[in-house]
């Protein structure tokens, strides 16, 4: 399983960044599924969090 991991920064303070693992996003069966489906979830996350910018995102296997 893979999960979406976002590096997000405050729009007003771009040096203030954090890592988000949105709990509402389902896990993906494969890295390819995550890569293809992840973009949609990144856009939705941005729409729900207008004061933030996504610096980068990636797919990772969650730690146990």
What report would you give on this structure?
The chain has 64 residues and is of the alpha+beta class. Helix content is 28%, strand content 33%. It has one helix spanning 31-48, and strands spanning 3-10, 17-20, 52-60. It has a three-stranded antiparallel sheet. Strand 1 and strand 2 form a beta hairpin. The radius of gyration is 12 Å and the shape is elongated. The mean pLDDT is 91.
Which features does this protein show?
alpha+beta; 64 residues; elongated; 3 strands; 3-stranded antiparallel beta sheet; 28% helix
H/E element order: EEHE
Total beta-strand segments: 3
Oligomer: single chain
Strand arrangement in the largest pleated sheet: 2-1-3
The proportion of strand residues reads 25-35%
> Into which percent range does the helicity of residues fall?
25-40%
Secondary structure blueprint with pairings:
Layout: E1 3-10, E2 17-20, H1 31-48, E3 52-60
Antiparallel strand pairs: 1-2, 1-3
Summed up, what is this model?
With 64 residues, the protein is an alpha+beta fold. Helices cover 28% and strands 33% of the residues.
């Amino acid at each position: 399983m893979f999960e979406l991991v976002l590096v997000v920064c405050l729009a007003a303070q771009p040096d203030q960044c954090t890592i988000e693992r949105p709990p509402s996003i389902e896990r993906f069966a494969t890295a390819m599924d995550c890569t293809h489906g992840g973009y949609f979830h990144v856009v939705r996350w941005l729409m729900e969090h207008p004061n933030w910018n996504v610096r980068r995102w990636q797919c990772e296997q969650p730690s146990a």
